[in-house]
Design brief:
- It holds the Pfam family DctP.
- This is C4-dicarboxylate ABC transporter substrate-binding protein.
- Keywords: Signal.
- The chain has 12 helices and 9 strands.
- The protein is an alpha/beta fold.
- The strands form 2 sheets. A 6-stranded mixed β-sheet has the order 5-4-6-3-7-9, with helices on one face.
- Strand 4, helix 5 and strand 5 form a beta-alpha-beta unit.
- Helix 3 packs antiparallel against helix 9, helix 3 packs across helix 11 and helix 9 packs antiparallel against helix 12.
Amino acid sequence: MTYKLYSGGAILGGKNMVEGLRNGVADIGQIVFGYYPAEFPYANLIADMAIYGNFPPAVSAAMTEFNFMHCGGCLEDYKRNGLVVLGTTSTSAYQLIGNEDLSDVETLKGLKIRTPGALWARWVRHVGGVPIATSASEMYEAFSRGQIDAVMQPIGAMRSHSLWDISNKITEINLGTYRSWGVFSVSRLHWAKLTEAQRKILMKNASIGLIGTARGYMKGDDLVREEADKKNLEFFAPSEGLKASVTDFLKSDRAQVIEMAKDKYKIADPEPLMDTLIDLIEKWHGKYEPIQGDDMAMANMLWDEVLSKVDVMALGQ
């Protein structure tokens, strides 16, 4: 099986990926489900719970199991939009990046903070900050012009988005990861042309790719740490008050997530899904703890326990 890679939005970008895959413009692409709240309500429920779990491979495995084995609504959303989604991956943990020590909750009051989604925007408002919705591609310019005071990104963004040219302080709050993300989303038109053996090949490789993508974000963080002294970067641990703000927020935000799931996403009974999601994250953190340094062992476990059990001939039908 041979594919040609078009990167950087050469044929499809974030905002037209679903339509392009549905119409066969591309065979496989990656979808950030946050761009499509109406089309993928269950994926956006997942996005609203992104503060749970911080080890990216475990989050990826948990989300993938949830999608295939516990969320019939997820699979229906994909099918309705002409897709077969081969699991979910995760970024590394979001931190606060700026030019000040932001380790105390009081320092966040009134700050304009670029957030990656609605959940993080709610937390910023919870601590008295002002959330700013700026795309990743516009983040550097907005920061350099003073339109935002800080950004919420993985540590690796210091290098990948050149943020270390304009900022040097990182508060390691570990505020969840982005995981509402179909990094291997297959057009149903293409999927229908594949034999059972070919579908299994894609599924097997997806188990490797999902873990590899999550690990790639972690490696990006490590590269920044290696350059920290050269770039004069400073790292700060969150104060007890800042950590408590996250705990308090999760308690108060659950009711809002439930309300949005029912009213906005039209999910009649979201609470069992939310509880299952939390349990799966805890489960996969535990399963990966002894083998967290071995990417192939984690990929094989994901294959053995989840992806190998999927009926590839029924998937997407």
